[in-house]
Each structure stands twice: as C-alpha cells, then as structure tokens.
C-alpha cells in the first residue's frame, strides 16, 4: 500500500495547460547546462514500448442520459431576466439585483437544483455577452475565482471568462477540473456564446460521479486505486531548443520555462521540487533539455455534498488525453507530455484505463447547447468532457468558462469509501 503521506503529497505546480503553447519571443537564457548534468536514468517509463497504447474507446454516454434533463434544467424565460440583471457593483460590473424577490426566487431555484443534482443547466437565458454570463452565474455563485494557472493557460475572453483552451479536433475525456494540482475548484460554469446548427455537435458531456465511482468500486481496480493512489508524470520540453532550432511547436503542450516562469534549469527544478514534485532531466534529440516530473496524489477526493470519497483523477492525466490531439497524437506514448501510473509506479494497463473510462461513459449526460445557455456544474459530483466536433463554413462553437472558488485538495478520507 502506498504510504498515505506519499499518496497525499501535494503540489502547487502551475498546471500544464490544456492548450498547445506556441513559442513566443522570450529572450533566450545564456545558461546552457553541459550534457553531463543530465541524468540518464529514465524514471518515468518502465517499459516504454511494451504497453498497449491503442487509443481508448471513449463513448461519453450510453445514448440515454444518466440523469433526466428535467431534474437539472431551469427555463429562465419564466423569470424576468432584464429586471434581475439590472444592478452594478462598485467596479461597474453587471450583477444580479439581489434585493428583488424574482432574483431571490431564481437563486433559491438554482441552489436547490445544484444541491440536489450537482449541475444546473439554464436555458432561454437571453445571455449574449460575457458580462451577462458572469452575472447569471453570480445568481447562484456570488464568489468567482480568477484563473491563475500559468502564462500559457487559457486566454481570457474577457474579465474572468476564459475559452475552453483545447482544439476541437481533440476528444476531451472526462475529467474533474484542476485535478492535477493541490488547489482545485469547487465548480465550473460554461456559457454557450456560439453554438452549431446540429444540437449534438459540440455538446459538452457531464458524468454523474457517484454512479461512476460506484461502478469502479464494483471492480477490483477501484480498491487498487484507493490503496495505491496515482502518480502523474509530466514531460516538459525546452522552449530555447525549439526557438533556437526553429522546431515545429505542434508537438509541444507546455514548456518547462512557461510552467515555472524560469529560464534557469536549476531554478526551474527547484520551483517544481518546492511544490512536492520529483524532477529529473533528460537530454532529448526531439525536446532538448527535457524536464520530467512526478507527482503522487490520491485518486479520490472527499465530496462534501455526497459525504463520501469519489473519483477525482481520470485518464485525462494520461497520454490517452492526446489520443486525438493534433500534433501530439502522432508522438509515441512515451514521448507524450503526460503519463498516469499507479502510485507505486506500476504501469496502468490499457484495460485498466478503459474500465475507468467506461464508468464515466455509463453515467454520462450530454448538455445540448442552445445559444445563451449556461451550465454550472459541481466539480466534485460531475466530471466533464466532450468529443471532437467539426464545423461547417460559417459555423461557430464558442464556450466561455468560469472557474469557481478554490479549495485545497485533501484526497480521500479514511472510512468514507
Ligand atoms: Fe475541463
């Protein structure tokens, strides 16, 4: 069994973005480490070529929503949204008028649905701007969080509304937001700024996490994930190498310089270590001075709503995340930027990962967007993801994202599995 202290080692690492980073014009560092400083032992892969890395079969749902839509949809045409959204805070931002009975009724309605189900899907909101998106979310969640993930993270659309930061060609597997750092967020809000003509195209999927957790616990894999925890392995390429050699950056997810904010190898490694990560360097002909980090964490997180430990890690932190990601999908799995193992280093087989995915898929629900829709989802009680989608000429799909207030991860609590 993985020692609990180890399983709960926490990091404050600036997370690797969900977005391919395009190299910028940062000044090159004058420090170049001699190659002898690189450690040659590769601690991040046990049998690099021996694993079955066939892309996972991700279905997202069974064809029938795991939770009936009427349990978590609220039709806002029944409320006078013009009246509700008629106040401004001291900074001049549009906010709901909490003194109005209508606002209080809507707040109570949203609160009840959110507490019962863990998701609220508001339809017919009339929302067309990020200011209105923010204000409607504030009816339920007065406190917002500013995303402070790192320099190459999601670009703000406006204020604290961000884009989803992933290419549409990629299947985004079910995950809990910010499950790869010690500070996570309690909820996530999505606002449909632009939608496709086909209702299922560009849908976001949520998975009911209690059901997914129960299903995984019915398999020995569940207990194994409790006992061993997981280890996130990250591989961070060298920005200087890519700039100096004019390399194609489509195979880059996140440079170590961007992740740490330092151009200096020693300093960058120290920043990572100070956050609980183990760090090693490799000299790679493809990625230059290649930083490899390891981070141990619980698979589960105590969910204060359900009062039990539920799944929080997912295969989104494995190389499987890049199965359909342009550029990165063409890398062999041992060169992809992420890898998930059990917390004692045991390789997670494709069969293990597929089982895990199946549990989420069997509890999946598509959120079918109409323009102006807003969904606020609990990050404990739901995982979220979406399949790839295509766009016809002139078609657009834009989702704004607001990340909710943060909490310090504590992992699973003894006796609450
Ligand atoms: Fe996400």
Description of the molecule:
By secondary structure, the chain is α+β, with helices and mostly antiparallel strands. The strands form 7 sheets. It has a 5-stranded mixed beta sheet with strand order 1-4-18-9-20. It contains 10 helices and 21 strands. The model is unreliable at 1-41 and 147-153 (pLDDT under 50). Helix content is 21%, strand content 23%. The chain has helices at 4-7, 81-84, 101-117, 130-140, 209-217, 220-228, 239-244, 256-260, 265-274, 350-361, and strands spanning 73-75, 87-88, 94-95, 119-123, 156-158, 161-162, 172-175, 183-185, 187-194, 204-208, 230-236, 278-284, 288-297, 300-303, 308-311, 338-342, 364-367, 374-378, 382-386, 398-403, 406-408. It binds fe (ii) ion (FE2). The site of fe (ii) ion (FE2) has 3 residues, from loops.
């Amino acid at each position: 069994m993985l020692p609990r202290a180890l399983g709960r080692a926490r990091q404050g690492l600036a997370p690797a973005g969900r977005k391919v980073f395009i190299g910028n014009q940062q000044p090159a560092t004058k420090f170049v480490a001699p190659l002898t400083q690189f450690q040659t032992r590769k601690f991040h892969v046990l049998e690099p070529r021996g694993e079955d890395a066939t892309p996972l079969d991700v279905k997202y749902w069974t064809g029938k929503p795991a939770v009936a839509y009427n349990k978590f949809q609220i039709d806002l045409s029944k409320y006078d949204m013009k009246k509700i959204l008629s106040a401004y805070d001291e900074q001049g931002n549009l906010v709901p008028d909490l003194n109005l009975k209508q606002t209080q009724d809507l707040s109570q309605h949203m609160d009840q649905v959110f507490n019962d189900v863990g998701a609220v899907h508001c339809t017919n909101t009339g929302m067309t701007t990020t200011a209105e998106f923010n204000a409607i979310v504030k009816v339920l969640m007065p406190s917002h969080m500013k995303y402070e993930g790192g320099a190459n993270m999601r670009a703000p659309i406006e204020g604290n509304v961000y884009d989803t930061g992933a290419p549409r060609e990629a299947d985004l597997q079910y995950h809990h937001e910010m499950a790869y750092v010690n500070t996570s967020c309690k909820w996530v809000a999505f606002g449909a700024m632009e939608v496709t003509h086909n209702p299922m195209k560009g849908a976001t999927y949520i998975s009911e996490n209690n059901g997914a957790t129960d299903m995984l616990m019915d398999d020995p894999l569940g207990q194994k994930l409790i006992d061993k925890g997981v280890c996130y392995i990250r591989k961070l390429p060298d920005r200087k190498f890519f700039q100096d050699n004019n390399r194609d950056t489509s195979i880059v997810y996140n440079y170590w310089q961007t992740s740490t904010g330092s151009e200096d190898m020693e300093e960058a490694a120290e920043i990572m270590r100070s956050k609980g990560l183990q760090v090693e360097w490799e000299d790679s002909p493809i990625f230059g001075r290649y930083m490899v980090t390891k981070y141990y964490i619980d698979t589960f997180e105590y969910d204060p709503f359900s009062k039990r430990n539920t799944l929080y890690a997912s295969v989104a932190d494995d190389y499987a995340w890049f199965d359909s990601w342009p550029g990165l999908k063409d890398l062999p799995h041992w060169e992809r930027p992420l890898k998930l193992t059990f917390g004692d280093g045991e390789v997670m087989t494709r069969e293990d990962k597929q089982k895990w995915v199946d549990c989420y898929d069997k509890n999946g629900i598509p959120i079918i967007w109409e323009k102006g829709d807003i969904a606020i989802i609990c990050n404990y009680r739901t995982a979220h993801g979406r399949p790839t989608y295509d766009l016809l000429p002139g078609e657009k799909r834009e989702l704004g994202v607001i990340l909710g207030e943060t909490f310090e991860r504590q992992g699973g609590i003894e006796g609450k599995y």
